[in-house]
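Protein folds are increasingly written down as discrete tokens. With that in mind, we are printing a sequence and the tokens encoding its fold.
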Amino acid sequence: MLTSKVAKRYAQGLLDFTNESGQTDAVFAEMKDVVKLMSESKDLNKFFMTPYIDSNKKTEVANEIFKSFSPVSQNLIRLIIKNGRESQLKNVAQQFINKVEDINGIQRITLTTATQLSNENIEQILRSTNLVNQTATFDLNVNVKPEILGGYILRVGDQQVDASVKSKLNKIKKDFQLN
């Protein structure tokens, strides 16, 4: 997923501020809550994306939803809405999480498979590649997508190994078309 420059800039500004004020850990947890909430609630996303709802109403709703958050997080959310960037709220939160994890040396790993795998199989896949630093801490996200037909797609940071059946079939199809 490509992230906008806007999200990266807001996230970097938030990170700079939280590092100076010593609130990075608290805001990190709250940004995880923002990402989770925005991922789970299609209605909330639609509400924030609706252009004819004015920013004051969006701010009221955001204040109510995020009332348990620290003032830093609440101010960031209000600023994003005030500037008309509420469509980027989830991306800003995710970028902040990514930046904090990068600082802490945490690898982000996404494993996409056709079916649910056992923990043993997942560990075997992770050990079989050079992309995963076995001594580092990592954040593993496992996705099940039947459309890849079999195999797996492993993404570590910005590198990817595509060992899916679908990509192999597409390669064979392309080779036949060339000959």
